[in-house]
Amino acid sequence: MKAKMFRALLPIAIVFTMISCSTSETEDAAAPIVENFSYTDVELDLMSKINEHRASVGLNTLQPINHISFKSAEHNDYMISNDVVGHQQFEQRANNIKQVLGALKVSENVAYNYQSNAGVLNAWLLSDGHKENIEGEYTHFGISIKTNPATGKKYYTNIFMKR
């Protein structure tokens, strides 16, 4: 009797195992694209200054993408809440942008405690690595500038992307 029941349930168990171990469509689907992002006047100004610099050296201007600015804002939130400045978890941000937006190349500039957009842009242009990102072969970018409410200090994240 047990053998008959086992033989009857075995095909059902095999089918259930095959279905439960397969990858679902939602697991294969790309993360959602963030389409809405509200830029502050300060963020728009810095994006304009970066594009003005690129144009002044004969480069294409970059088109903003809200998803990239959202990822930049997430990183600013992380830096503020963890009291750090750096490129922590950059690979995760870059991989998300590659997956969601089809980027071929992604880079990032961060800064902390500058009082003006001219000041942060000048500092980035005086740094070889940051300047390379600003003047790199990119097509799109995003930016976030956030102020730590506890200290009043500004955090900047600027991500570049090439499609």
General description of the model:
With 163 residues, the protein is of the alpha+beta class. The chain has a 4-stranded mixed sheet, sandwiched between helices. A hairpin with a 6-residue loop joins strand 3 and strand 4. The longest helix has 20 residues. The chain is globular, with a radius of gyration of 23 Å. The chain starts with a helix and ends with a strand.
For the structure shown, list the relevant keywords.
globular, about 160 residues, 4-stranded mixed beta sheet
Count of helix runs: 7
Strand order of the biggest β-sheet? 1-3-4-2
Query: What is the tally of beta strands?
Result: 4
Instruction: Note the gap between the termini.
Output: 64 Å
Give a quick precis of the structure.
The protein is an alpha+beta fold and 163 residues long. The chain has helices at residues 2-21, 25-28, 41-56, 66-82, 90-101, 117-126, 128-134; strands spanning 63-64, 105-112, 140-147, 154-162.
Provide the fold topology.
Blueprint: H1 2-21, H2 25-28, H3 41-56, E1 63-64, H4 66-82, H5 90-101, E2 105-112, H6 117-126, H7 128-134, E3 140-147, E4 154-162
